């Protein structure tokens, strides 16, 4: 790559990289200083956000896709100084990352995220913590599919005095989560003021949505499939989920 002038890479907005290790990949990627969309496939390292020395002049990206990772435990490091790389992220898609533990983020790194798609991540037992979901202030769509070990979407941090407002979420899809027992097992207060569409499909162990106080003023039904209009509703969301579970 050294034989090419650096100016050649400055206008490239979309980059797809397949395969590689951290030592070979990031010195290459940092040449693309104006990326808008980045897809990373079939790679092998523990963190996606690079170390400070690897980042070069990378600017914040808007679209990130991670697919078929080996050994990826976290998308970025807890102590990373490079959260700005993801600060403008809108859609985040994670697929087939079997070793990924959860979507861990700092208070500012995902503040502009609008769409979160996670599927086929077999080691995940929960998706996010309460502190992370509270900071997803622009999130409108969340889709979680085919994660065989996931028992809850929001994990338990123990501070049950929190009120968690997911202010812009309109669409939530929970599909083929065979171990899912609840959206959140903790006794938190959840408020979803804009939630209009909820799809719960092939989640046979789902007994309750949330243990604490729950507000979903715009939600009037729970769809049972993406592909048909079959739905159910009984007074409120928790009652509806309980009834569906007892009827199986």
Automatic annotation (TrEMBL):
Q: Which UniProt keywords apply?
A: Plant defense
Superkingdom assignment:
Eukaryota
InterPro entries noted in UniProt: At4g27190-like_LRR (IPR057135), LRR_dom_sf (IPR032675), Plant_NBS-LRR (IPR050905)
Kindly indicate whether the keyword Aminoacyl-tRNA synthetase belongs to this entry. no
Protein name, UniProt field: Disease resistance protein At4g27190-like leucine-rich repeats domain-containing protein
Which residues does UniProt call coiled coil?
none
tRNA processing keyword on record: no
Domain Disease resistance protein At4g27190-like leucine-rich repeats positions: 6-103, 107-210
């Amino acid at each position: 790559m050294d034989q090419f002038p650096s100016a050649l890479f400055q206008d490239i907005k979309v980059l797809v990289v397949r395969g590689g290790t951290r030592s070979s990949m990031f010195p290459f990627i940092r040449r693309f200083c104006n990326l808008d969309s980045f897809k990373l496939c079939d790679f092998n390292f523990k963190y996606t956000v690079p170390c400070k020395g690897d980042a070069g002049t990378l600017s914040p990206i808007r679209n990130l896709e991670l697919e078929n990772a080996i050994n990826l435990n976290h998308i970025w490091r807890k102590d990373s100084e490079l959260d700005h790389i993801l600060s403008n992220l809108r859609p985040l898609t994670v697929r087939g990352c079997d070793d990924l533990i959860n979507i861990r983020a700092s208070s500012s790194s995902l503040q502009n995220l609008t769409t979160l798609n996670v599927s086929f991540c077999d080691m995940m037992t929960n998706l996010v913590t309460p502190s992370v979901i509270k900071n997803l202030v622009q999130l409108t769509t969340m889709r979680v599919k085919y994660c065989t070990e996931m028992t809850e979407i929001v994990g338990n941090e123990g501070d049950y005095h929190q009120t968690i407002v997911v202010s812009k979420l309109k669409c939530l899809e929970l599909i083929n989560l065979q171990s899912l027992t609840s959206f959140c097992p903790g006794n938190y207060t959840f408020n979803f003021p804009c939630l209009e569409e909820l799809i719960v499909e092939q989640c046979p162990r789902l007994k309750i949505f949330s243990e604490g106080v729950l507000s979903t003023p715009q939600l009037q039904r729970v769809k049972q499939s993406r592909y048909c209009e079959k739905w159910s509703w009984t007074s409120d969301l928790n009652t509806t989920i309980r009834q569906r579970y007892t009827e199986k």
